[in-house]
Amino acid sequence: MKRGVRAVCLAWLVVVLAVAEGAFESDELEWEAEEAPLPLPKELPTATTRAPGAAAQDSARAAGGAGAGDSGDAGVVFPLEHSLDGVTFTPAGEFSAKLRPVAGQAVPKLTRVRLARQPWSPAEQRAFVDLIARNGYYRLRVPAHVFSAAGPPYVVTAVRAACLADARFNEHFDLHVDTAGHVLALGYKTFVDCTKASGEPPREWTFSSTATVRSSLTAPRLAATLSSMDALKPPKAPKLPPRVEGGGSGKDGEAAGGEGDEEEEEEKTFFQKYWLYMIPAGLLLLNMMAAAAPDEAAQGASRR
Question: Which residues cross the membrane (predicted)?
């Protein structure tokens, strides 16, 4: 009997363990199915990255043609044009500059600017000599948008032809550029005193050119305070003293005075000037009279 009971208990224990083991395996399989990572593809696509300002560099290369040198640095080339008659502009050379990316700006910064001047033809030399004789101005211009195709708008500068001749064609350009890469102004120097130009034609026609880039700065914004607003108001006109009329009287004097006499202050009366003192004095006098009245009444009664 005891052996039968033991066999039944043992069989029951085996069944319970088998069921528990099956349930544990099924849970483990479900967890593996949910948490197992997805199979990776055989070949992963590679992402292409571009350096900052690559779009601007591409447009600069398209605009300038050969923008970069042998070192592989990005660059830009834009033309310089001159006019010897004040009307027609013809090519006079090319500016070349390197591009340096700047944090926070979509357009790179121009650096290491160089100018390659074209040699002048005999016709241009004769026109320049004639310009010196007429004391005329030698004009130059560059495109305002150096990253786009050459064309309007332009930034123009000028110098007296006699000054450039006395300087022996030593010149310097200042390109004032904003953060968007636009040329705002073109400075031009000849390193001589133009007020003492000799007016003699040049003997040599070789240029010595230099150039620099001047970055624009944003001015600080002023707070709209009361003092700053008052500073913007126009000053008030000073008050003129009353006009004293001399010679003539009556209607003639009034006509000479005009409207100035009407604006004169009217003279104050005696009461208007001293009312502040008269009122307290009157009150004090009334008090003294009121105090003296009972004394007089008492004296009159005693006499009776």
Answer: none
Q: Does residue 271 belong to any structural domain of this protein?
A: no
User: Is 226 part of any domain?
Assistant: no
Give how many domains the chain has, as a whole number: 1
DSSP state of 291: H
Which residues constitute the domain of residue 179?
54-215
**What pLDDT was estimated at residue 138?**
95
- Separation CA 287–CA 281 (nearest Å): 10
Integer CA distances (angstroms), 39 to 30, 36, 43, in order: 18, 9, 12
Tokens at 186, concatenated: 């073109």
Query: What local confidence, expressed as pLDDT, does residue 105 receive?
Result: 75
Query: CB of 214 within 8 A of CB of 155?
Result: no
Q: What's the burial of 186, exposed, middle or buried (CB within 10 Å: 0-12/13-18/19+)?
A: buried
- Is 82 among the domain residues? yes
pLDDT value at 96 more than 70: yes
Per-residue pLDDT tens digits for 24-33 = 444 444 434 3
Cα–Cα distance, 278 to 217 (Å, whole number): 69
- Average pLDDT over the chain reads 72
pLDDT for position 170: 93
